Structure formats: structure tokens, C-alpha cells
# Entry
Amino acid sequence: MRAEYEKNDLFSSPAFRSLREFVFEARNAGPGDGGTEEFERELHSRLMAVGRDLIRDHIAQHDLDAKEIKVGDERFRWKMKSKQQYCGLAGTFEIERNIYVPVRGPGKAICHLELRAGIVEGAWTPLAARVMTRAVASTTPKEASELLEEIGGMKPSTSSLDRLPKRLSQVWEEKREEFEEQLRLLDPVPPRAVTVAVCLDGVQVPMKDAEREEKRSEEDKRPQGPAGYREAGCGTVSLYDAEGERLQTIRFGRMPETNKRTLKEQLEAELVSIYLAHPNLTLVCLADAAEDNWTFLSELSSRFSPNDINEAIDLFHVLEKIKGALNAFHGEQTPESKAAFEEFRIFLREKDDGAERVIRALRYRRDKCRGAARKTINDVINYLCKRKERLRYKRLLDRNLPVGSGVVEAACKTLASERLKRSGMSWLEEGVQAILTFRSLIQSERWENGWTLLSSEYQRDVKVSNQAA
# Structure
């Protein structure tokens, strides 16, 4: 293999010679009749051939000709040589490498070359695996396969693109808490941050029928939402400066899970880390009106900011409810409804007793109508009365604190809906979590560090053993 490369003549390999000849011919022949696209495609093809040779040679250098090796405290003896195909960004190549088996007793054979080089899942170079994972986090395996083939170089199959992120997600989950702790240490709180906001929400995603029915304890609820759908959880932790400008947002997405247990653990751990470094930050909790969300968020408020509770139902959700009540009384999209809506919006944002003013005005309208309109308005009144203490928007706005959960609403859309709810899609839980994990890292600007942590799981220190077999 490495005989193709003479130490003093790098251009001795067929791929290098082919590239050199192409370059010389192109320089001497001029632009020709083939066009720029054809020229660039041919150049890229030859560069990829050189790339395959170089990465093959680089990886082959990790092989050890030893009778016995050690991985950690475990000793392995040489068994045989075996050829294996690997794939890098430039395409597929073959290497003959040594295989070892445990010295003591039966056990799984290992390829120390793969461990030293960090080969992912026995087939992919780290960069190839990274590109594949990010591609599938962004689009479907079929579209990713077509795009990579169009680019040239590696040509992973659709099934490989589907399978690899799921396997990597499983590896991530095995050490998720440790990885997330390290990511927090590598991602310090911006110096200008004075406020931290936690938002929690969910989005219905299409799940395969076999996964809809899962084991539940007696107190667990049945699935909610349309048939064939279950709620994936989305959460955000955002940092703001004194002027209310958002500086940073960490996004989390979790597969459908009872009471969003893991998601809540992630949000809480993020807050613990933030407050250890910056104990004086102001905490704001935001969500829609779902009771389970507020049970958790109120516990966070009591724990991290007991003397300054800042909780708010997302203002947009509240205004949507109010608009429905006003349309029921005045008629949909009438000038009277629009004028009243603007007045109520100002009440909520600019008056200390804004919630009370809105409730009184709605009660006046309720008492003047009957039938369905009366019921609609009364339902909104009950909604507002039950949550009145979380409608104090002026108190938050006066301190440049956020009053909307648009950040987590956007997370629901960009983390989940845009990727998981395309036409005809239906998911198993392992597939959902793989997508949410990697999209969360990417959108939180933690992908670089996250991939370093994940890919390091495939690399081990291998030493030649001095002990006899």
C-alpha cells in the first residue's frame, strides 16, 4: 500500500501522476471546448483520487506490526490480517490491517488501526461521519445522498445516512450528561448577561403506530393530540443584556417522553451551571398555559429566584385568546374588534392593572350577549382570571425583561417541525432523538465542541505490549 509513495517522490502514485498530467495538459491546451463545468468536474474527480490515496496512507500509518497490544488494561494478541473498505470525504478506499483478539478468554476482536485513527462505526473517517451526520440533521437521507453524489467524492447510501446518525445518537445518550456538562464549561456565560430566561413547550410529531403505545405507570396519561402523533419536548435557556437584547440561546429537543422528564433535567442542569458562575442573574420563566410546564417552571422560580418571581404566560398566546373573544362579540376582523384589541394590548403592556382592565371589559361584553358568543367570551375570562398573576407584563417590560416565549416557539419550528413533519414522514423514537440531538447542538452553536466530544469516543490509546502472549 504505502509502497506507492516514495519518501523522496510524492508524485509517484498513479493518482498524483494523473493529476499532474491533467494540470499540465490544461495549462498547455487552453480553455478547450468542454466548458468550465466539465473542466471543474474532471479536476475535482482527480483531486478526490489524490485525496483517497493520501487519507488511506495516513490511516495505514496507524497500523502496528506487533504480536501483542494493550488497550487500556486489556491485552490482545495478533490473529490475522484482513482487508477492509473505509470511506472518507474523498470517497472509498481499502486497507489491509491487523486484527487482534483478547489474550485471556473469548471476546470481541478489535482493529487497533481503527481505534488509533478514530474510525467511526468501523467504516467512516471522522470528517466523513461528521459531514454525513450534519447533512441528515438538515435534510432527509435521500436528499443528502443525492447532494453528496452531486458534489463528488464520498457517495454514502441512503441506508448508511439513515443508520449512522441513529448510532451516533445512541453513543451520545450513553454519556449525555457528561457531554453536556463539558459543553457548558466550554461555553461560558456572556459577560454582559444580566437576565436568563427559561422557556418550555412541545410540538406534535408523527410517530409510527407501533411506537404510540408504550408502557406507562398508573399515574401516566394517555397520549394527547392527533392519532399517530405524540408531543416532542422543546426547551430553551436564553441570556439577555441590560437593554433586553438576546445574547445567546441554548436549545434542547427531546423525543416524546412522559412529562418531558429528560428535557426538564437538561434545563435545570443548564440553570445550575449558569447560577454557579453568575448567581445574580435575574430569572424569567415563560411558556404557554400548559399546567405541567408551569409546575416545573414555578419550581425553578422558587429555587433560583425565590425573592424575585418573574413568570409570564407568553403574551402572544394571551392576545390570541383575547382576539377570539373580541371577534365573537364584535365580529371577526371588524373595525370595532381591531380597535378593542389594540386597546387591550396596550392595557396589558403599559398598565399595572392591565389584566384586571381586560377582564372587566370582557365581562361587560359577555353580559351583553348570549349563546355561543357568551360562552366563548366567558371561557377567555376564566382563562385570564386563573392566570392573572402571570399576566403582569408591564412589570417585566419596565425592567427590559422578555414577555414572550417566541424563542421556544421558534425552536419547536426549527428543531422539530421543519425536519420531522415533512410530507409522508413517520418516526420511531430513536430517529426522532437523533435529529433533535444534532439539530440542538447545531442551533445552540455547540456543534463544534459536541462533535469533538462524540468523535473522541471512537479513538483509543493503543500500545505495543512487552508481555509474552
Notes: The first strand starts at residue 68 and ends at 71. The chain has a mean pLDDT of 91. The CA atoms of residues 332 and 365 lie 15 Å apart. The radius of gyration is 29 Å.
